[in-house]
Structures are given as structure tokens and as C-alpha cells.
Amino acid sequence: MLRGYIARRLLMTVPMLLLISFLTFSMMHLAPGGLSAVFIGARVRLEEDRIAIMRHYGLDQPFHIRYFRWLGRVLEGDFGYSLRFRRPALDMIVERIPATLQLTIPSILVSVAVAIPVGVLSALRQYSVADNLATVGAFLFVSTPSFFLGIVAILIFSVGLGWLPISGMSTFGLRDPTTLTLIVDRLRHLVIPGGIVLGLGYTAGLLRYVRGSMLDVLRQEYIRTARAKGLSERVVIYKHALRNSLLPVVTILGMWVPYILGGSMIAEVISAWPGMGRLAVDAVFGRDYPLVMGTLLLAASMTLVGNLLADVSYSLLDPRIRYE
Amino acid sequence: MSERGRSAVSGGSSQWRRFGRNQRAVVGGLLVLAFMLASALAPWLTPHDPIRSNLPRRLEPPSWDHLMGTDSLGRDMFARILQGGRISLMIGLLAVAVALGIGVGLGALAGYYGKLLDSAIMRFVDLLLAFPTLYLYITLVALVGPNIGVLILIMGGLGWTGMARIVRAEFLKLRTQDYVEAARALGSGDNRIIFRHILPNAMAPVIVATTLGIPGMILGESALSFLGLGVLPPQMSWGSLVNDGMPFFRTAWWLPIFPGLAIFLCVLSFNFLGDGLRDALDPRLKS
Question: Are A126 and A222 within one domain?
Fold first, then answer.
């Protein structure tokens, strides 16, 4: 049953990937100058070169053939060449992914570690002072643009107090680096983009979610049953309620991939963090279309993988879902 | 069911009472009103011009003459924030209007006709949701170039999926109601049933989603403009004012702080208002 569900879910991903690639490819025709501008740019002046490149990518063919030729190249890992850097676009993007992961993964982990206990306690003591504080706080952070949080943090902690570095991933030319000082240096650079620009928003959103989910579960029949059969409140809360209320959190993390990638783009720009988001923004400014389209395609694929993982892990945790 | 819907539209007094008791919602509503008024009356609220530069008085901190300081060209920041608010609010409202039109239209079609049309529309929604919004926005901006009209169309044209899902769910629920069956038995056509019988009863969640959609659009526009890919000079929005201030912000803190605060307050007000409307119009949706 489970294997069948996972197989079906995997199969559903294939047409989605095809549709994503089709939409991305169609979008390229919107560029001023059309496809040839996207693939070749204005720098290739010689008409023969232009024609040769167009033929290489099959761009001189009718639409459907153009699409399949392009798709074939993309599947082989050929995303075209960056117009500015004359390097394979895919290589340039893949190089930037580790930096984005180093930024997003720690901030998600910290957010989860903070949001789950606070959200659960908030729900257990609904309408208490602490609950009100948590809910209002979450509401404020959900309403704040993340770049604004970053600017305020830089002004206070970097410019004002001098506690944290203003930007970058690490200090260049650190004197007598030991493993410990290198790690501390990395962590200090992570605080503003990871902890504040990304983390506060995630924590606020997750906290609202966990609290709502917990309140929902506490109203369920099976909780009443558990209490009625004389289980201690401790067992009811921690064994029956908590587990069930945290199930949807797994899904939400998978579903949040697009939101996390977007947030990371802002954080990377504010803190000059050399990740995929900043590459995409720089590529847009440089009208470097192969890079722009490549980052879009990769970001969409990552989203799809995130959704897939969310669904599969949910089905592992909650057997009910497999029978739908 | 129909009772709830009908009173939501005709403004039943119990909803107003519930709304009035919610302090947050009332404060949010009043602040939204204040932002609207400030935008409408912007030119009369300050003697300064948002565009005329005055280089001798560049980068001045806030003072009685320049309430929010001056920027790198000596322009009054208060006047610029008032002007930026007009653009930010206008983009937010128009983008939501576009999303509302598409979302209600496609959601109603999917929910009412069901079957193949429904799956086609819903798969298209899934497809759009597979693209990270900010990546999709900046790609489209790169392809078609940034300007305010494009911004509204892109954000509205991509931001309708939530609305479509809500309207679809309402239509699925309402189309089998007795009163709809009765209307059909009396010979009402599809159009009449959709527009006269079902849609009015689906208004409560639509009103809530619209109100809560505005702050989302304002945040989206501010993010794009902050990146320098949204509203460009000589026009200005709150997000683009933050972007303008970035090269000087270490010394001139007032440049990003005041427009940033404006975004925060405005978004918060709409969220308060939307939350209050939800609790008042449809208590079952309470989060």
C-alpha cells in the first residue's frame, strides 16, 4: 500500500516537471528579441554564429520541436551559457546552492525548535498572558517585511553595537584560524540573514500553525476518549495530542520550499550572501537570460521535490492518507 | 448555510456587533482608513514636494521642517513616503482586484461545472504554485521589464490561486443545496444560478480573502521594489524608498526606517481588519 502510494506520487511528479519546463520555455518567448536574445544575447554579432547557435539548440524549428530539443538539452544538464560569464549556466547555479542551504537549513531548524514548544504551550494555555504575547508577537512578525527586520538588525547589532558583521559569509583572512574560531565566525555571519531576516518570519508563521493545529487536535473526540478512559493529563497531551498536532508541521515545511527560497533571496541580497537567490537577482539586472531561466527551473524543481518529500513523509507518519 | 451567506451580504447587525467588539479589528480598520485618507490628501499634508531636490540640505536627520529627514538629493522624506504610499496602496488594491476577478471566475467555473474543467483548472493552480513566487516575479520582470502596470498584472495574474480554491470550495458546497436545486427546477439557467443564487452566498469568505490579500500584495510589491525590480524612479513606492536609502543607511538610518515602518503599519492594519472581518462574518473560519 505504502509503496504503491509513493510510486503513484512519484509518477505524478513527472508530468508536473514537464509542465513546469513547458511554461518556463514558453515564457522565454516574452523576452524582447525573443528566443535568440535569451540564448545568445546581443554580444554575438556575426550572423553565421547566431545561426549556428540557433541550430545547435534547434531554435530554428517550429515551436513543438524547439521545445523538445531544448528539453533534451536541459535533461542532459545543458542549460545554455551565461551571457555575461560565458560559463555553463547550470554549473554557476549549482555552485551557489550550498551557500543557500547553509543559510536556510539552520534557520529552519532553529525556527522549528522555537516554534513547536512555544506554539504547543500557547495552545495549552489558551488566552493566558503568555499565549497573548506569543500570538501578538507572531502577528507582528508576520506583518513585517523581512528586509526591514534585516536593516533594523544591521543598524542595531552591526553599526550601533558592533557585535555582528555587516555582511558576507565569513571573515576574509581571519588571523590564526582554528576550527573553533572558524565555526564561531561562520555562526556570527549567520545571525542576521539566517536568524533574523529568515528565522523570525518562519518562527512566527510556524508558531501560529502549531498553535492552531494543537487547538484543533485538543477538540477531537479521541482526546476526550483518552481522558475518559482515565489516562493522566500528561499522557493525553504528550502522547495523543502532541503527535497528531505535529503531523501537519511536516507537510508545511515541505510546502514552504517556495516561500523559503524567496525569503532566502531577500536575505542573500541584504547580507551579500553568495547563494542562488542573489545569483538570480544579479542575473536579472544583467539581463542574463540563460541564468535567470536556469534558476527559475531549478527553484521550481526544488519546490516539487519539497512537496513530494512532504507528501511521502506524511504518508509514512499518518497511515490514513494512503487510502484516499 | 444560506442564512449565514445572506446576512453577510446585507450586513446583518449581529456581524457588525461582533466586529465592533473586536478592538484589534476596529483599530485596524481605522488605520486602514487613515492610510487611505493620507494617500488621497497627500499633496495637502506637507508643504514639501516629493520630487524637487535641494542639494544643500541633503541627508538631514528628522527635524521640525523635515519630519522624516531628507534623502541623498535633499528631498523631503515625509512627502516621499506620502507619495510612495499612494503607489504602494494603489498597486496592492489593483493587484488584488485582478486576482479577485480571475480567482472568482475560475473558482466558480471549477466548482460549479466540476469534472474535466475542474481538474484542468486545479492542475493549473498546482502548476503555478510549483513556482517560487519571488523567482517567478523577477523572471517575468526580467523578460518584460519593470513598470507599475506590469507589476500589477504579474502579481494579480499569479496571485489568484488562493481565491480560486476558496470560491471553488464554496461552490462545491452550495451547488447541491436545496435552494439551488429549487432554482434549477424552476428553470433558472446556469448563469442565473451562478450569479444570483450561489455567488452572493459565497461572499463572506471572498470578502475576507480579499482583505487579507491586500497586505500580501503590498509585501510582494515592497520585496520586488526593495530588490530594485519593482517601482523605479522617478516614481516611488515604500519598497523602492527603502532601496533608495540602502547605500546611505549606515549613517542615515531614517532613509530605510520610515518607509519600512510605513509598510509594517499598513500591512498590520490590513491583517487586523481582515482577521476581524473573518471572525465577524464567519466565526467557523476562526483560526
Answer: yes
